[in-house]
Amino acid sequence: MTTILALESSADACSVALLRHGEIVQLFELAPRQHTKLMLPLVDRLLQDTGCALGDIDAYAFGAGPGSFTGLRIAVGLVQGLAFAVDRPVVAVPSLHALALTAVRTLGVAAGQSIAVAVDARMDEVYWACFTSTADGAEPQDDVEILPLAAVPQLQSGFIAVGSAWGLEALAPMAVNATAVYHDLSPQAHDLLPLALQRFELGETTLAADAVPEYVRNTVSWKKLSEQ
Question: For the segment 18-28, what is each residue's pLDDT rounded down to a tens digit?
Answer without folding.
Answer: 999 999 999 99
